[in-house]
């Protein structure tokens, strides 16, 4: 792989700690959510951070596909729902549902576009074969 950019962040304290990027733009306290034994839902957590990264990356991949195919579409949006659960072996795993809205195209066109974006997106390529990823078109 030809390197284009590297992001750097450091975590201290795990799910009940602090994360910070090397440039200090990302500087957050993280806590386990209430559903995982945390006191409340007042802080971000690793699943939210993963959902934010995946949705932003996938939306960029989707817009690249739309541009390359010279399709006229409105402003897209992608919502990522990241679920954590226990695996049969006692470990933990993730599942992702990506909900994409592409105004100005048919449902069929939107489905084709998100499937193509799923082949381009670095997050999709990194997780392929490791976690379940559902692609959902939310166009009405």
TrEMBL record:
It comes from the Bacteria. Coiled coil: none annotated. It holds the Pfam family OsmC. GO terms for biological process: response to oxidative stress. Gene3D superfamilies: 2.20.25.10, 3.30.300.20. Belongs to the OsmC/Ohr family. NCBIfam families: organ_hyd_perox. This is Organic hydroperoxide resistance protein. It comes from Arcticibacter tournemirensis. The lineage of its organism: Bacteria, Pseudomonadati, Bacteroidota, Sphingobacteriia, Sphingobacteriales.
């Amino acid at each position: 792989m030809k390197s284009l950019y590297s992001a750097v962040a450091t975590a201290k304290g795990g799910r009940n700690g602090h994360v910070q990027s090397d440039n200090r733009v990302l500087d957050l306290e993280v806590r386990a959510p209430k559903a995982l034994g945390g006191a409340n839902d007042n802080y971000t957590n690793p699943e939210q951070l993963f959902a934010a990264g995946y949705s932003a990356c996938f939306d960029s991949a989707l817009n690249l596909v739309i541009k390359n195919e010279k399709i006229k579409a409105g402003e897209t949006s992608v919502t990522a729902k990241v679920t954590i659960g226990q695996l049969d072996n006692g470990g933990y795993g993730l599942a992702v549902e990506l909900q994409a809205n592409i105004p100005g195209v048919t449902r069929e066109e939107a489905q084709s576009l998100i499937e193509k974006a799923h082949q381009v997106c670095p997050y999709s390529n990194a997780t392929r074969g490791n976690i379940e990823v559902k692609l959902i078109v939310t166009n009405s």
